[in-house]
């Protein structure tokens, strides 16, 4: 009996933005954010399945995870819409009498190119030309999928990709015995039935889809002439390509056709949307013929037809390639958007998967527990050398698994899309300026305006932005009474980290004077917020611009530079800015007598010149000169290259060289321990030493090669830099307040300058007057400040800054640092360290052994749960040889390798074909020392021997 009219009339929409009631039900039940995390996990699993199938079949390349072998692939099929189509189904391009061009691909369902005679399901993929985009319709020749939802689908695909007996056991554990039996019966029922001809087969959609205001439908195609279907014959030809040959022969003799039908939604009990494995009974939801699909008579064996078939075989079909009013519904379909996209990207070498050896998974699981217990009473840096290295590797593994939180906004429900444009040809071998197309599978990942992620969940305390008063915190705990030097480093090291941070992170700030954060001054004190302003009882700080107004969006912020390690501080983050920095249309960066040009405000012109001072000017100038040296070398070696190719290759070389210097030179200089030296050099070059290599072979085999010889890996979270990363790189104590300038030729003293004399618009005049040679020599022979309490630069605590909109403000940068940390929801210090797998603070002395600092911390904060993270990081006693705390270091060991590992130009595309042989050699053979010597050979006798150029230089004898 058919359903009544009332039963067949569902409610269509639930709100004004077009989210259906079925989608809202899903959001309230499961949550879009949790589904997004699940789907990313599923996407990673499908890459694993593809790799398993490739290795099992012996194929040389990655193919589709399913439906690998095409049986028919043509682009001239037609859907003729019925003249009798009900009015409410006449939606969009499905109009009565319309003829819709179709690309059709019929296939075997297996991920292997196996014989047609093997037991298998068959699939039909239709790409319908709507006149305003496409609609992909995907179907299989069994009425329902074996999986109720995405979790079951991925569990089954993963289990069955390897050994079938082992796979059945895995499936039982994954979904339970009852569901495993049902799924296996479903698949067996669909595959054991012989298929004699594709024209005799019906193909059903995988779950439901929206059909405009008519609500959900399931669709299928069935033979147009059902009387032609053969019955009773259980034998199939013993020919590996009999189905392919049969359909080719059939369409060479005449047209082939199927009816395209839909079934209407009745209710969740009879026609469930979320449970894809429940069949919609035809006696309760009668099929309605919407159109007839026709394959016209043709010869599909010609060379032209075969070329066309190859092109179609390369298409990435996805049910979400459609118009919004026809978007898929149900959990299984929602997952297909991410999973199919990942699979297609993997097949096109735009996304990568590298299997983790079984021994690594077992050893890691066992040793993580063992070292977790050991670290309760003995931290990693107090262990013997080899155990310490293994401990660090295990800690990084745990941090990757638990401390990468993607904050990119989630669409409330997956939205319909269209097939992406082909990757621009130039994107394959050059970096974009705005960070797009670095990950070719997710082109927007890490671009300018991508949001900051998190390593720890945000801990908003909006009522505590001024508690305790950050001005008092700064005065009592940060103010530099006397300079505390870091004697193992030079000031070039201090300038270097700011040089890097400007490439990595920059929040978008509100204009000063518009909705400022107001910090009350202590009783009896005032502050002038602008040079000509009046004294006020509040300090005004320009706030960050959040991405929205919801509670979650208020704690999510965009990066105004790209997240990639791409040298944007030199080259700029947009094509327009980069063009202005070049010397005409040639490959060189514009220099004036070897120095950066000035703009009309007196500021040096480079990729990023905010918070500008002499140390930054020195490094920007040095690397602009180095870029031009690379260009000269490339021109000599490759005389036929265009200027654009020379420029883009030089960009790649300089960006990679900077990443290498930071990884293998700067970091071991500031974290001066044997374990860090080995670990960081191993990041770039692979480890040395038989015992170290054996340990990594057991625990993390990928680390044996050095990151540039591995494949990109985002570790199950979109690549981005994080708010917590920004927090631990607040290293302003490195900057001295006073700078002594020496003559680099004689070593003689020239003059003493204060920080305010060498920053902002004063910088260029000092640079040109003193000269880059004397600036580098002077900074090489001076120490930066130690990263500790009571060592914040005085010059930055009353600092006149000109914002990009040319407004001038007076700030106490130490207060700004504290306020920004609190307003961004960074957990306070005790929760921060616990989130990074350190033991909680149980007494004040757990933070620092300095009794006077303990007293001050108690007086100011009252509870150690209130201590600001920046203050705690400065107070914490660092491991021996470290320039900063072990807590901050944990963010570093997670994010340092991530910045390399995620970037294809530092992994799979770090190769001579992209960089040129000369470019690869330039990166591998050069260091900070060799760069300085190339431009200043007279420094050969003063640069440190056996150490990096960030160690103190030898002064010339006067």
TrEMBL record:
Protein name: Catalase A
EC number(s) stated in the UniProt entry for this protein: 1.11.1.6
Organism from which the protein derives: Roseibium album
Top-level division of the source organism's lineage: Bacteria
Domain annotation Catalase core: ranges: 27-366
Cofactor section: Ca(2+)
Keyword ATP-binding: no
A GO MF term: catalase activity
One Pfam family here: Catalase
PROSITE patterns: PEROXIDASE_3
Keywords carried by this UniProt record: Dioxygenase, Fatty acid biosynthesis, Fatty acid metabolism, Heme, Iron, Lipid biosynthesis, Lipid metabolism, Metal-binding, Oxidoreductase, Oxylipin biosynthesis, Peroxidase, Plant defense
PANTHER family per record: ALPHA-DIOXYGENASE 1, PROSTAGLANDIN G/H SYNTHASE
InterPro entries assigned: A_dioxygenase (IPR034815), Catalase_core (IPR011614), Catalase_sf (IPR020835), Haem_peroxidase_animal (IPR019791), Haem_peroxidase_sf (IPR010255), Haem_peroxidase_sf_animal (IPR037120), Oxylipin_biosynth_metab (IPR050783)
Renumbered residue ranges of the record's region Disordered: 406-440
GO BP term (any one): defense response
